[in-house]
Specification:
Structural class: mainly beta
Strand content: over 45%
Low-confidence stretches: 314-334
Largest sheet: 24 strands, mixed
Distance between the termini: 81 Å
Mean pLDDT: 90
Number of helices: 1
Helix content: under 10%
Number of strands: 37
Amino acid sequence: ANTYGGPTEVRQGTLRNGASEVIPGALTVNAAVAARPMATYELNGFDETLTGLTFGAPASSNAAFINTVTTGAGTLTLGGNVTTIAAHPNTLAILSGKVLLPGTRTITVAEALGEKVDLLVAAHLSGPGGVDKNGPGTMELGGANTYSGATSVNEGALLVTGSVSGTVTVAGGTLGGTGSVGPISALSGIVSPGESIGTLTATSLSMTNNATFALEINTTTQTNDLLSTAGPLTLGIAGTPLVITDLGGNVPLLEGTTFRFITYSGQQVGLFSIGGNAIDDGTEFFTLGANSYRIDYNDLGGTAVSLVVVPEPGASLLAGIGLLAGLSRRRRRG
């Protein structure tokens, strides 16, 4: 067992364990040579405990840098927090293998321009701890995770493409992805299923008036995001903001065309709002591009929320209210 007190840093090539518990403190993986812009730390099947883990980046370069930590059959115990530093574009950090969380760990992810994902956690995360996602960058959880603590999204974006069994609290930033999570509690920030159009599965969904549901539809292909839950749906009483983006060609659609974007089981309470105006079930409608829609909160016999295309009424029946993102809200009369 090593006892040196200075830092351990991988700046190029690969550092590989030859035994368990050989690094006495924290580790930095920082590919700093443009000619060889990859740095890797391998546990090589052994176990290791780190008091902190940093994925670094040089101050400036035109190269694409990849910093990787992989465990193989061994287990990495995170005794401290994880930080990524993206000092220039095209910096990607990867954590794979088996990782133990003995307590809640803060993972702070910097944003590297040119990268869809800044930190890819393909590892299986286990243990009694949880994850606090901080920083403006995007982190992807791609493993079948079994850690029992909570997950909090405080800044940036968290994409779940694997699974997270515990509660996910959105307190800022964005939760998205195409995997599965436990209960979602969105206090603020954004819930945005998919990576572009896709499906995110959750145990239940609860959103306040201060959180936002970001929905992507495609009027050309008639496809859309879906948040599929197995439990109740709770929205803000004054209206959880709903922001809709059409990725298609703004195609006029037939009356009754439906974009089903949330499924639930059991009780549904609350409403969505468009531009600060609550949209009642079937009594209000709004226009987005070439189409007008109503929101059906009780689709499929009270198990789904859907956008449903309605005919555009005459101009004399419209109450014009300016809304965000080019949306117009209308009230059907008579």
